[in-house]
Amino acid sequence: MNDAALKHDTQEIVVDEVFPHRPETLWKTLTTADLMGRWLMIPTGFEPIEGKHFTYQTTPAGAWDGTIHCQVLEVTPNERLTYAWKGGHEGNAGYGSPLDTVVTFILSKAENGTRLRLGFVLPKNETAFEKMGEGWKKVVKNIGAIADEKN
Fold first, then answer.
1. DSSP 5
2. How many CA atoms are closer than 13 Å to the CA of 11, on its beta-carbon side?
3. Helix (H) or strand (E) holding 73
4. From CA 39, how far away is CA 1, in angstroms rounded?
5. Are 107 and 23 in contact (CB under 8 A)?
6. How far apart are CA 151 and CA 143, in angstroms?
7. 48-52 long-range CB contacts below 8 Å, 24 or more apart?
8. Contact 67, 57 (CB under 8 A)
9. Which residue in 130, 139, 122 sits closest to 15, CA to CA?
10. Could you write out the DSSP letters of every residue in 92-141?
11. Could you read off the pLDDT of 40-85 as tens digits, one per residue?
12. 61 with 95: CB under 8 angstroms?
């Protein structure tokens, strides 16, 4: 599939926020399993090591058991975390339909702290795009709130 076809068949959720924290503080919030469980879901088997497989467990739907299978793809401490995100079942429509994507967190220094940019590419699926778009905005705000506690 060429780049033009890929862009036509996907949508990207982007959340871009600046927090009054050092990159190291946000990084810890992004990569510590118990803290991850507070802003998203508790991961099972997560370590910020390239190639590491882990899972999240969410609400099952139809034939899908609710397991999200992930693999860490890229780790640059205090700068970038990228992992694959796969879940759903082909028998489901809307929530619980197949999703094979990548989530990326990018940290960069900003004038008053650190910019956190989240990118989440997903196949054209209006239901998932709308629900997850709103969900990821809340998640990023939660990351900031947890980092506030750790500061």
1. H
2. 13
3. strand 67-76
4. 35
5. yes
6. 12
7. 48/72, 48/75, 48/77, 48/81, 49/75, 50/74, 50/75
8. yes
9. 139
10. --STTS-EEEEEEEEEEEETTEEEEEEEEEEES-HHHHHHHHHHHHHHHH
11. 999 999 999 999 999 999 999 999 999 999 999 999 999 999 999 9
12. yes
pLDDT above 90 as % of the chain: 54
Rg (CA), the chain: 15
Tally of CB atoms within 10 A around 63: 11
Hey, what amino acid is at 69? H
If 0-12 CB within 10 Å is exposed, 13-18 middle and 19+ buried, where does residue 32 land? Answer: middle
Which pLDDT value is given to residue 151? 54
Residue 29 parent element (H or E): helix 23-31
